[in-house]
Amino acid sequence: MPYEVDVTAEDDRLASKIAYLANHAQQPAPLKRRLRYHVKGRGPYDVFEDGERLESVPAPDDALVVLYGRCYGRLVDHLSVAGWVPLHGGLVTIAGRRLLVVGQKGVGKTTLMLRLLYDGHAVEGDEMVFTRDGAAVALPRPFHLKPGADVLIPELRERFDDLPFVLTSDGAHVTAFDPGAEGFDWRLGVGPIDGAVVLRANHGGETSVRPLSTVELVQHVLDHAFPTSESRPMLLRAVTALLGYVDGIEFTVGSVGSAATALATFATVSSA
Amino acid sequence: MTRHSPSAIDGLDVNEVKDGLIVYDQARDRVHYLNATAGIVFTLCDGQHTESQIANVVAVAFQLDAPPLTEVDSCLASFVNEGLLR
Question: Which of A19, A115, A116, B17 sits in a 20 to 30 Å window from A52, CA-based?
Fold first, then answer.
């Protein structure tokens, strides 16, 4: 991830929007370029990139959309051009085993990754992982939390209302949790994985686990991969290169606490 | 169509994993997930092996008492149905 991005704004109301964007992940690639964004005005707003005006927008959230697109959109495009394929999932290392964690939207992946983070495990990302030639790297983006995350993760309660948030166009309230800014040692790595976990929801029920064949694992990941513009052969090659010789399990998630404990136990036993 | 020495069609993208094959048929835009047994059978669909030879290889691979002729025949039939064989 070669960019370092500085964002400033005249209007103090944009401070929380900028905080929503920021990530303090330590990244493995050397810095390639620094980008400077400045938002001028107090409504309407002029968004500048390295001194050049990009766009004029009416509201603070519109400025955030522009900045988000330029920062994260540029990053995703850069990775895509370099042959990295995006997968919907998170990355965590437990007991020395680096695990890809995938699952349908709403299964509780982000909440589980947050629980694992607070339990002391090295979580790299919760939403998007890029893969190429058998290596994986997480998208350096804060975790996006839904309302109620502080109920499921008690350690969040004191901080939750102070975290930056946005209201999306469909009215959803999304809170940004930056592990680096919250005092965690948030580091991204680039390299192979040791295993993969497919999550299934069973909220309020039992947590259980069953092994997956690699063929099943690949099928699950492809079923939940992001719609991509990459060719299907390219996607298949990338996914099989990443997953082709790792162990896979299917985790049915009851409570986030039991799931985190079970996953940590599984990873620890597997590495013994 | 004969399956005496079955042969896979051209243009398939075959990806090997630990316990099988992931085969992509670009012409039909279909992905086929082959488990270990189906993967061995498919790999031997090279026009050089008869069905009985394929069954013998499967028997050795899985330490079976007898070549699984019926199962191999069924597997090949499914490959034909999916358009994977000539």
Answer: A19
Task: Print the SS3 string covering A36-68.
Answer: EEEEECCCCEEEEECCEEEEEECCHHHHHHHHH
Task: Answer whether A243 sits within 8 Å of B17, measured CB to CB.
Answer: yes
Structure tokens given for A55: 């766009």
Residue spans per domain, chain B: 12-81
Dist. CA A88–CA A126, nearest whole Å: 9
The ipTM of this complex is 0.86
Nearest residue of chain A to residue B28 (CA atoms): A232
At B55-68, the pLDDT tens digits run 999 999 999 999 99
pLDDT tens digit sequence for A222-245: 887 776 666 888 899 999 999 999
Question: Is residue A69 within 8 angstroms of chain B, CB to CB?
Answer: no
Show the domain range for A64: 3-81
Asked whether residue A114 falls in the same domain as residue A240, the answer is yes
Could you say which of B18, B19, B24 has the minimum Cβ distance to residue A236? B24
The residues near B30 (Cβ < 8 Å, ≥ 6 apart) are: B24, B82
